[in-house]
Amino acid sequence: MSINQLVYVSQATRKMSPEDLSAIQETAKKNNAPLDVTGSLFYNGGWFLQVLEGPLSTLDKLYKKIELDPRHKNSRVLYNEPASFRTFPRWNMNMTNLNDRQADKYDELVEVIEAAQTNRNIGSASPAVTLLKIFRG
pLDDT at position 103, please? Predict the structure, then answer.
């Protein structure tokens, strides 16, 4: 089965507490497992950056549903391309709260979110491509 990777950025409509983020993660895990969707959600300073991996038609439907979520606004797809492998194969949904500053790869991830917010590249790569490269090793 072929898979796509979809990366989007959005702005939270209110400050998210650790409990809010945990609830989002738990719901995503439960919903994504039967859909064969994996990925990771990053939160920093009121912004979300999410990677979703799975069948293209499934990701299209899922993203339309995500866009309707009132917890965020100004959602924008940064990347939606076929992939030869999953970057996050072990996680139906991982969550990284960069507000706690304890996250692995903290500085790199903050730079990716800031670049995505302002529509700028990191070197010659888009924020989405940079994010995927960080986790591909």
Answer: 63
Tell whether pTM > 0.85. yes
DSSP 21-45: HHHHHHHHHHHHGGGT-EEEEEEET
Integer Cα distance of 122 and 25 in angstroms: 28
Please tell me the predicted confidence (pLDDT) of residue 137.
Answer: 59
Domains of the chain as residue ranges with CATH: 3-136 (3.30.70.100)
Spatial CB neighbours of 122, under 8 Å, sequence gap ≥ 6: 111, 112, 115, 130
pLDDT digits (tens, 9 = 90+) for 80-107: 999 999 999 989 999 988 887 766 787 8
